[in-house]
Every structure is written in C-alpha cells, then in structure tokens.
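User: Show me a protein chain along with its predicted structure.
Assistant: Here is one chain, sequence first, then structure tokens.
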Amino acid sequence: MTIQFKTEFKQAPDHLIFPMAKEKELRRSFQQLETITGITAKALATDFKAAKNEIVTLYYKVGKKDKKISMLGLGEKPTYQSVKDSFRALSHGNKENGAYHIYCMEQPAQGLCEQYCTAAVNGLWLGTYEIGLYKTQKTAVHALAKASGKLIFYVDKSEVKTIKPACQKTLALAQTQASILDLVNGAGNRVKPSTLGDWAKASGKQHGYKVKVLNKKQITQLGLGALLAVNRGSEYPPSFTIMEYQPKKKQDQKLPTIGLVGKGVTFDTGGLSIKGHLNMHFMKSDMGGAAAVLGAMEMAAKLQLPVHLIGIVPSTDNCVDATAIKPGDIIDSYSGKTIEVIDTDAEGRLILADGLAYLNKIFKPGIMIDVATLTGSCVRTLGYQAGGLFTKNDHLADQLLRAGQQSGERLWRLPMWDDYKKDIASDVADIKNFSGRPVAGAISAAKFLEAFTEDHPNWVHLDIAGVAFGHSAYSLQRSATGFGVHLLTSFLESF
C-alpha cells in the first residue's frame, strides 16, 4: 500500500471518504460536500448525524460519470482510538476497495488533521487483517493490502510536512500490530514456545537487531528454575528469547537502556489448579505480553529510536502431566529465591520472575517494564477498558499514562504499598506465588514480581489481561487486540 497526499481538490475521485465528527454545527462540512457533489447541504443533513461508525454513501454524477461519496461518522469528541475504530470498520466492510481517497482539508482549523490521518492509516490497515489462520479455503487478500493499494489524503498544504512522516510511521506500526495478532490468535498447538523465538529471529534479521533463543538445555544450565518448573507438564520444551536493539547511528550521548519482559505462556490450562472448561480455549492468548514486547522491539528497530532496548521473552505452556508441579511444591528460581507454589494457575509470575531477575543481573537496565496477561483480578477491577499499571516511580507512571492516552491503549495506576507484602509471605520458602485471598489479586501478583527486581527504582509492571484479547466486530469469538505495541512504542519515543 502506498500513501499519497494532495493539497488541491480539482477532480472528485470515483469514491471519496469524508470523515465527520458529531458536533452541534456541521454546516461547514455539509456546505463543502454540497460543493463537491451538488447535493444540497439541507438534503445531506437529513439522514446523517455523524454518530460513531455511521456510514452514509451517496451517489452523484460529474458530467456523465458516476461518483460516490461516503460520509463517515466519528462520533462526539473523537479520540485517536475511536477514529481508528471507525476506519477499521470501514476497511473491513469494503475489502474490494483498493484505493481510499480521504478528504481532510476541513480539519486544520480544528487541529485534528494529523490525528485523523494517522488513525485512518492504522485503522484501514488493521481492517485488512483476516483471522482465519487455519481455514483451508482462504479468503481473497484485501485489495488495500496489495502492492497496488493506495491511500490518498486531501489535506491543507501546511499540514503535509508533518503528516507525511507520521503516516508512514503509523503504517509501519499497523503492519507490526497485524503480525502479532497472528501470534495471539494462533492455536496453542501451532504457536509453541519455539514459535515466539522463531518470530523474533526473523524480525531481528529483517530489521537489524540481535536475537538469541535459548533451548531447554541452555535454560537448565543457566538456572532458570521457575521457567523450568512451569514447563514440567508440557510436551513442548521451553524457550528463552533475548533481544537487543541499538540504533545504527552512533549517538553523542549515552543512550538510555530500557528492558522489557513479556509473559510468553502459549497456552494455560492452569496446571493441576485447572481452569474451568468453558473459556479455557481462549487461554491461547496468554502470551499477549510477549507479543507486545516482540512488537515493541520490532518497532524500535523500524523507527531507529535512540534507545538501547533489551527484550526478554520466557516462554512455555502450562499443562497437566504426571511431572507437573503441584500446589505445595517448593521450586527454585534464577534469582536464588525459593518459591512455594500455592496455585499452579499463577504460573505467569513464575516465568516473569526469572525473566526480570535475568534482565536485571545481566543487562542492568535503567528502566525495567514487564508486560503480562497476568490476573483475572485486574479484569474484575478495570474491565476491558484499561490495563493495570503498577510502579512506585511517579515519573514513569506519568510517562506511561500519557503514552496510553496518545496511543489509545489506556492504563490505570493501582497501588504498590508494602502493606500488601504479607499476602505473599511463606512459612516454608522465601515467597509464595499466590495469596489465597479473594481480594487485591492483581496487586499481590505485582508485589510478587517486585521481589525479583532487587528493588529496582525504575521498574513497572503492566497487567494487560483485560485488554489484550476480547470481543471484536472482526471475529465471531474473542480475538487479539494487539494491545501494548503502540503503547510501548509511544513510551520509547518519549526518550
């Protein structure tokens, strides 16, 4: 797909998209449409109210040639996320349309031109995504996703210099987001721990960052005891992916070193503390944190961001076998701490513990962020509208909250008071992996992870259990959202 910009509207294309926010006064937009189509503003306003995702398509003639124009409603006070959603719906419903002409010349006065254009790029490309990964009868490739696909924006001349690079960056982002959707939507017997490592190696080779994937023998030699414990019930060996990106251009100043750790549980039965059967098939999504970290690594390399970025993905599935860990078992970890396993379904924090400890010891990053679909408690607290943010660092919290607002991938901060430490105190080991209490589950999980950071002053935990996988207009059941890639990219760009 190519993106073009035109600063004059001389000849109406065969199909023009006209995005409009719902406002008290739409007269100016309707007058512009009247100029283009010849249809009176009064007639245009009769059936179109600019509600979110509302689409009214009109047909008119220019000379003897038939033309059409689609008025696309963006709703009241549109955000980046809502505009993206509207354009994704438009793209998903028009798979044969290989050229989108979008009229944004009205927007500079509102200060919305860049937001509309970049959100349109993101939404239109994600609208080309098809979830039928394993269907034998494949659907036709979306026309916009072909090399011949075109996206043409009509914008004010003063906006092009800013909008053009922003749209190219957004296209790169959308392409990465779409690729990780396949990972999260992939079946547990197709997306294995080794699959995540293979994805990282292919991405690293294409975009120029280092990737090393440790096998089970190397993991054992390294002493990643918590990861090995979770893997004991699995038919697939674990993997431990280590990624490192540095920009090609040498920087005058020392680059900040930022470390990311993503939970890569490719399928979670709950182990012996087995989950209920009704929704267990959705547990293929339990590597949404790993997918976010993989995508963020790729985006840092694509954009050549001025950061030294480390990505760690410990990966296994959590299954039931005669050798699987049991409630009450004591396991070792990379940090040297012993862990009492209270609940085998609290496995994600075990593999993250090894990932965090390894990242901190080997790379000593200035900032550490882990991302995980970790707890149902976070879903019960925040629903499906925001991820949970846990840190004692106010400055980092503010930066991530801002990044969440900019990207449309929102976060909400929850407390990290030391009062919660008692919830994970063990009688027989250094720490236990589950409080056993029906309250503050997301917070006690964060306190568990904190114990493996050596009190790092710049550590953040993101619980994305409620936002990485959910109900969608683009699938019959729940499916991946791609949450985290844009959020982390926006955060990294702030450096």
